[in-house]
Structures are given as C-alpha cells and as structure tokens.
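Fold these two proteins, one after the other.
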Amino acid sequence: MKFPVLFTAIALFAVACGKPAEPAATNAEPVAAPAVPGAGVLNVYSARHYDSDKVMYDAFEAETGIHVRFRESGAPELIETMKAEGDQSPADIIIASDAGTLFRFQDAGFTQPIRSETLEAAIPPHFREPDGNWFGLAKRARIIVYDPTRLKPEDVAHYQDLADGKLQGEICMRSSSNIYNLSLMGEFIGRWGADKAAEWARNVVANFARPPQGGDTTQIESIAAGECSAALINHYYWVRMITGSDADKAKTAKTALSFPEQDGVGTHINVTAASVAAHAPNKDNAVRFIEWLVTPEGQKMLTEETKEFPMIAGVPLPEGLEALPEFKQSEFALEQLGVHQSEAQEIYDRAGWN
C-alpha cells in the first residue's frame, strides 16, 4: 500500500543503534584468541547492546550446537580493536547498525565478500552490499516527528519542508556527525546532487530552535516540551516510547509522525546488517549464523526489542509497530551512503550543523 502517512501519536558510531549512548559493554565471554576452524565456535563482534541479543545467541547455539562467544562495544572501539588484532583477529562476524557504519568496517578492510543463495534470495539487492560484504537484516525508517498543534501534516510531508523558511526557529536536531544523519545526507547527495543537498543543510540550520544536542529520544522529548516543532528520528525510538512507561507514552501523545516522500521516492530506509570478518577463523559458522538471522525465528529475535522492521516479509511485527501504517520505502542503494559519507560531513560542517 502506498499512501501519505501522517498521523498523531496514539546509542556503530558515536551512538550505537538501539539505545541512547551508553558505555562500551564488556565481553559476555572473552574472545581472546582465534578459535580452531571447524571447532563449532562463532565469535561475534557486535555494536549492538540489547539483552535480547544474548537470548538470540543462545537460541542459535541450542539449534546448531555452535558455541557463540561475543564482544559488544561501540563501532569505533571495535574498529580500533580489529586494527590492533590484525590478521590474528578472532572475529568471525560483525554486526552493526546503519549501512554507513558497515561501510567503515569494509573500508578499513575488516570484511570479506561472501556468496549465499539463501541471503541473496531473502534480501533485496538494495539492502545488501553488491559484492556480499554485508547483508541488511532489519530495517529502520528516518522520519519526521512533529507537534500537531503547531504544524499541519502538509508542513512536514517532505524532507525539504524542514528547510522551508516558515519553520524558522522550529527545528530540533541531533549532531550531524551521527551516522543516521550522515547516511540521510548520503541519500540526498545521491538523489539531488551535492549543491542542492548543501542548500538543504544550510536552510535547515537557519531553522534551528537550538544547537544540535542529544539523541533521537531527546528530539521527541523536546517537541513534547514545546522547545521546537519538528525533528528527524528513527522510527523505533518513538515506538519504544509508546510501549514504554506512562511518562513516555504521555510525551509521544503530544507528537505526530510523518513518513516523508510518500508522493515520490519514499521514506529513507536504513538497516542493521552483518558482515563476515576478513580473517574469520570460523567462516562457515559465520555464514550459517547470518542465514539463520533471516529465518522467522532469527528475524523475530533480532527485532523484538529494537522495534526495527523485520527484513523478511511475513514475520510478525514487534509490539508497537502495529501503530505505524504501511508506507512507501526508498529503494536507494544503501552501499552508496558510505560512498558519500565524507562529503556529507563536509556539507554539514560548512552549513554550521555541528
């Protein structure tokens, strides 16, 4: 179904996907040395921080007999760790949020291309790296949250609307260095060209109600508090709040959502994705785990706590996502987000979007 979606409410790099920024987690089980190939071990390096991921690893281990050991930390820390480990890294698989983040691992030489008929059949081409360096496993939409008492739905039906002069003093944002904003700008550069994308950034900055700060949840809270009228967020931050505490529900009740570009290319979509590490000592187990993550069980466990959209059609939606109608999704090739990443940051910097 494709139709405009505007309705009132019913912390990988500097911030890891999922929760707001939090200290780097320690290993649940040390991953100190390369495992013996074929020994039934899988070493996961993950930039995610969810209790449900441990349950997911346990389920895979119970089903396959492959013992899962995992290291959780921020994506920058994982990259530095892998640099120090070199070709002796025990990492078999890398899990991180945002195609732009996976690009950084790939660009550093920490991923390897793989072929899998299972993954290629299950995951649409624009949600995976063309050579098989990473595979998108869950989806997130970058949308507009707004105050319906101050703005009309048509005021925020497009990303370009955030740059309209009539919204001067009405926009809240998080830092431009956040990977979610860098990737969104990457799509704009790819679709509009650098000059138009830069003009958009300058005009959005001119509409700021305050300097960029906080995470996506902060933007929702700022709108609820009357500090501004509109902001960009990933959809799952809002969904977590409507399924959270009474205080969070009260805040989201003061907001509405817009899924931009429903009359055009569709809303910007990004992914949580996985790569097989460049020097994976247990490559076959790594491929098997990624393939397991596109099964109904794997998809459910991957998205249940995060409130992301399952990649595979027909998988039951996590609680709260039923509040979001179907919407038209952008089919922009996600590997291009990383290609434009440096230019995106330069555009933000020149615009004064700190």
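Now the second one:
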Amino acid sequence: MKLKKENKYLLHILFWLVIYIVYLTQYIFNERSDTLRHEFSTYDRGLTVFFHLLAVIAASYFSVIRVLPFLFDKKQIIRGGIELCVGIYIIAILSRFSVVYILEPILGGNFGEQESILQILGQLAILFKYYIISIVSGALPFIIFHLLIDRQRIMREQAEIEKEKISARLDVLKAQINPHFLFNTLNNIYSLAVQQSTETAPTIDRLSQLLDYLLYRCNANYVSLDNEIQFLRNYLDLGKMRFGNRLSIQFLHETDRPYTIPPLLLVPVIENMFKHGAEQTTGPTAFSIRLKAENNQLTLIATNNFIPGENKVSGIGLSNLKQRLDILFPGHYILKVVEKNEIFEVKMQVPLV
C-alpha cells in the first residue's frame, strides 16, 4: 500500500516522538551516578533530550538523503564515506554550540566557564566522546527504519512490475488463437451464403458468439467454466462445418458445481486437434473430448487420430498452453501428451476456484 505524503510526514513525526519518549525515559531512570543530573527538573531533562534529539534527527536525514545514495554506488562510496564523516563532525559541532550557547544558559546551572567557538572546534575528544558517538548511535535506528521501508517499497514496485509483465505475457498468449480458423470459417460462411443454405444464419450466430466471447467476455482473469465450455462447443461446431461428415466429434462434460477458470485455457488443446488431426488427414477423423470438473480440479482428456510423422507439437499450440500453465499454476498442473497407435492424446489437470 502506498503512503500518501501526509501519512509519510505523520509516520516520521510518530517515529521521532517514540524515540524522544524512549530517550527521556532512559535519562530519567538511569541509575548511573551523575550529580548534575539529579539537580535537573523534569522540564530541564526534557529540554536536554530535545536538544540531543535535534542533532540525531539532523544526522539521520543527512545520512539517508545525502550519504546513502553515494554508499550504494560503488563508484561514489569513497565520496560518501568522506561526506558522512565531515557531515557528522559539523552536526556534532553545531550540537555543541547549541548546548553551550543556548541550552546551558537556559538551564542556568553551574557548567563552568563558557568555551569560545575556537575552543569548541578544537575539543575533538569531547566532540567524539559525548556527541559523535551518541549522534551516530542515535541515528542508526532511523537509518535501519528507512532501509526497511525503502526495501519494502522496492519489493512492492518489483512485484507490481512483475505482475504487469506476467499479465502482459498472458494477454499475448491468450490472444494467440490461430487466426486461420476465423478465415476458414468466414470462407465457409461465404460458401453457405452462395448456396443459400439454411445453415448460413445459425453459423453466423455461432461465429458472432465466439467473437463476442473473444473480444468482450474473456478480459477478466477468471471466467465461468460454463461459458468456457459453451465457447468450446461453438468452436467445435464451426470446425465441424468445415470438415463435414468426415469429422465426428464426441464432447462430454460434467461439473459438480459452478467453477471459474482462466479464459481460453482449453482452446489450444482443441485447436491442436484440428491442426494436427483433421487438417493433416484426408479420411475420417474422430475427436473425443472428455471434460470433468469436480473437487476443485478440472481434468481434460482429448484424443484424435493422426497420420504418424505428421503430428508435431509446434508453433503456438500446446507450447503456448504450457507457458500459460507455468505462469498460472506453477508446479500445480499436469499436461501430458501421448502418441500411440495413430492416436494423439492430451491430458490436462488444473486446479479450479
């Protein structure tokens, strides 16, 4: 889920508010002996923690906005390291200035003689021990928090890109129904019209239903299995019209309840039967198609006779189908092709929802 800009700001405010409470709690209940600390009121302690937190916040955003992009670039990593050291040192100096010239006068305690600016610049030991170490350690949680959020964002964007790529690939595969089927069907309809056959109108109606399904009703990720079966029936009827009496088709199907299925998942099997069965033979051709949907599983067994040596699985037919199955049901489907005794059989099992 993408965060709106306002929500991002709120998330950052809440993060630093929590850190402030943690720092203040540790400061108040720390049991180490420190005489100055016991002289402070809760207000003084809160103000002290606030000044320290300002330095931590500055170091945090400087690190994630300015330094991290350099550190993630191998060519810029040295520059990033230099900028990190210089930036933390400057933040430590500014923090020391604010403590000496703003915080200590407000607190009004006995902090000794006020150092000059040149003295503060030269107090490397004090800066390192009391400022740099605490600022860096304080900024680490935010840097880690930022990296985790950024990692989630990158993973989400990669997942969306991958999803779009898969969707586009599926659309391409889904659209690769052999166009010569439609051309042959139109030619047959033309012949029927010339002959003024009574089958002209019913054939046009089947073709219109098929095109309506292809163009408008199978754009969703899943469609009704019943609609897919009706599409296959129209597809088979139009194919039989082309080959006439020499093609016999047995199409049996049963379902135990309504299911949905990815659209056009079954038609490559039927198309393969026409391409490598009916189109490759000159004599009688028989199609047997048995489809059973039960217990959330679909089983399709399709057989046809063929001429040995002519039936080759190539082009966009079953290889197209296998690519779609790999994307849709990786590791959860069965696709078997068997050639035996001039019979070509395709068996497919896929899960249903």
